[in-house]
Design brief:
Mean pLDDT: 90
Number of helices: 1
Number of domains: 1
Structural class: alpha+beta
Low-confidence stretches: none
Shape: elongated
Strand content: 35-45%
Distance between the termini: 12 Å
């Protein structure tokens, strides 16, 4: 099974200088374009379950082969 990585940069709402990277992995549907189309709904779900954070940036990528998932 091939995966796609939705990479979020999230910052604390109370301290916007304090940011981190979150990775959400999904089964690939063939292209990164599919990830870009489906990402807004997944970002909204993540944001609703993390109300103290704000998503400030996101991108789709295929995960590095050496990265343990």
């Amino acid at each position: 099974m091939e995966l796609v990585d939705l990479i979020l940069t999230v910052c604390l709402i109370s301290n916007p200088e304090r940011c981190r990277v979150e990775h959400l992995y999904f089964e690939s549907r063939g292209t990164l374009f599919q990830c870009m189309v489906l990402a807004p709904a997944e970002i909204a779900k993540w944001a609703s379950s993390h109300p103290s954070h704000q998503v400030v940036r996101w991108k789709c990528a295929f995960p590095a082969k050496e990265r343990a998932i």
